[in-house]
Amino acid sequence: MNRIVLEPLFLHAELVGALLGRHRVRRGSAGAAREAAGDALCGSTSAAYELAEMLGEALPKLEIGELQKLVNDDSLRVGTLVAIEQEFTFTRDRSLENPGNSPIRFMAPMSTDADVRVHGIFNAERLAAASAAGNLTGDREVLVLGTVVRCNARSIEVRPAFIGIRTYVNDDADAFFGVSESLRVYPREIDQFSGVDFTTPCTPAELQALHYTSEDEVKRSIAALMGEPFVAKDWGGEKSDLYTSRTSVRGTHLASAWLFKGPGASGPMTVRALGKRGDQIDRLYSEPAELMVLQHYREITTAVVNMMSVYAHHMSRPRRFMIVDGEDTAKILRAVTA
Is the N or C terminus of the chain more exposed, i.e. has fewer CB atoms within 10 Å? Predict the structure, then answer.
């Protein structure tokens, strides 16, 4: 994933142009961004796409925090420039309509904490293309880039500069043909797990036996499958429980860092079960690895999956991530002991 490609649905030309004006972009200067912004203000669809292309190239250099992480860190403030990618509900607010202003509201519970509502409003007159109106009604998963204008413990209002689709591509050919590689890896895609039967469900006895299997045994079993002979002992300052450069995903070798949560962590895994403000995920992502793995003996909640995805999509360094829940863990152990 070498490049970020943005498809604009809504784009506020002045805000995006001002943002790009502080950074050099593909066409060489802030003047190019101002020129494209001016064209976009005149209603040029091609200019809006050009601005979006410049923005995609600049994103790795811009200091834009992922909203869910900032909330989890308790570091979100009014005026912060943020990014949030998840499903939102878009509705037309006809009560505020007047000539030149067709307001659309967006709202959703935050993907990592359903008690927090993220919302905002924008003018449909600034949609990047006429067809975008149909794409921004009802429920739609999008990337929102904007500034926090109000926030408290339960509500965050964002003034959007950009709403659209974010994809990660490897080269120009991928970008041209719309090929996007998902950052999430599934256990069956790990080459070292080729002998694991992930299709046959575990029996109740196999799942029950898992709860009597120590975290260290699970770690060493997976390390053995990876061909990793060096398994460090656990200690309080560790960033991960297992680090190996021997992982292979669909033929591509890469380093992986693993966080194991043993039978002592009861019930479905939540973000709060991962240390204060989920700091175990933060430490995991500080490892020099291309694949981050979270394992648990039971169910892993969608909030945790979403938080792993938020970290994986960090725009200055996107990385792959994998979730191994209790069912997958039992299947891996079944293959080891067969």
Answer: C
The answer to whether residues 138 and 6 belong to one domain is: yes
Based on the fold, state whether residues 327 and 194 are members of the same structural domain: yes
Instruction: Kindly state whether residues 191 and 175 are assigned to the same domain.
Output: no
Among candidate residues 160, 180, 200, the one where a domain is terminated: 180
Range of the domain at 83: 1-180
144-176 pLDDT, tens digit each:
999 999 999 999 999 999 999 999 887 665 554
When divided into structural domains, the chain yields a total of: 2
* pTM of the shown model: 0.86
CA-to-CA distance for 63 and 54, rounded, in angstroms? 16
Residues 294 and 273 in one domain: yes
Residues 52 and 163 in one domain: yes
